[in-house]
Amino acid sequence: MIKEITDHLYLLVGENQGRFPYSNSLYIQDRHAGLIDTGAGKNRLEKIQKKSIELLINSHYHIDHVHNNRMFPHALVHAHRLDAPVMRSREKFRYSSGLCRVPAAPETIFNTSYPCSQVDVELQDGDLINFGATRLRVIHTPGHTPGHSAFYEETSGVLFAADVDVTPFGPWYGNETSDIDQFIDSIHKLIAMNPRVIITSHEPPVTENIQERLMDYLQVIFNRERLILDFLVRPRSLDDIVAENFIYRKFPEPVALYQLFERIMIEKHLRRLEKMGLVVDCGDLYHVA
Questions:
Q1: Where do the structural domains in the chain lie, given as residue ranges?
Q2: What is the rounded CA–CA span in Å between residue 281 and residue 270?
Q3: Would you tell me how many other CB atoms lie within 10 Å of the CB of residue 155?
Q4: pLDDT tens, 46-94?
Q5: What proportions of the chain, in percent to the nearest 5, are helix, strand and coil?
Q6: Among 6, 30, 178, 252, which residue's CB has the most CB atoms within a 10 Å radius?
């Protein structure tokens, strides 16, 4: 399904409505045809495969965003300089993501190993990608991954925010290199921009109450921390906290993979709360300060 956003920007809705392990893509129809992310699914991407994509941009290194890069072998691949090394190396992906803790984790979802990709152009915050009449500004939004980036079309006010996805689930920071404080800063950065439209990787476009939606999305982080603090009125182990499912509530299949994501996110919250002086780490147990 392709939805027109502007004369040159088209949302390619991913299979299963862009839900993981798929994602939405943004097709740029201009003098230089472009595509942001390739996780929409092979059947969806075949609709634009014949349009001679020249510029392929990946918002970050996650498998649901780079999975089908190889469908566009002649495109010039762009990614932020902090995520580019991970895209090029299966080993770096496994360690950066934390999936080295779970054997064959990517295979359990995609029946394939991580699809390493070339990166021809390493991006940084503020770069301008020129397609012709359309120019997209790179907005570095770390937290989800170190190099996670959004892309802003300043004339129309359209922002492709990728996995700052304004879902009710809230921000996801379940990789080893994810960072909660950076994610908070990135959300504030997008709130301050006040775009007219936000297109995300896993939800329909947002056109109303954008700042409020972003604030609600941000609040999920603090709600999780409140649950953790309430639970730690008595000393608890990391395993105790993870078993409460404060993040996922219920683990989908494959359970071992989502248990890992829960654990990593809880670990990050505990480190953040300890740094804030709200939690004490007593070795095997944590409790409120």
A1: 2-219, 225-288
A2: 8
A3: 11
A4: 988 777 899 999 999 999 999 999 999 999 999 999 999 999 999 999 8
A5: 35, 20, 45
A6: 178
Average of pLDDT values for 209-222?
A: 98
* b/e burial code for range 55-89 (CB count within 10 A of at least 16 → b): bbbbbbbbbbbbbbbebbeebbbbbbbbbbbbbee
In this predicted model, what pLDDT tens digit does every residue of 226-272 receive, in sequence order?
Answer: 999 999 999 999 999 999 999 999 988 888 889 999 999 999 999 99
Average pLDDT, the chain: 94
Q: Does domain 2-219 have CATH number 3.40.50.1010?
A: no
The owner of tokens 């078993």 is: 243
Tokens of 258: 């989502």
Cis peptide before 115 (omega within 30 of 0): no
- Show Cβ contacts of residue 171 under 8 Å, excluding neighbours closer than 6 positions: 143, 144, 164, 180, 183, 187, 217, 218, 220, 221
Burial 179-209 (b: 16+ CB within 10 A, else e): bbebbbebbebbbebebebbbbbbbebbeee
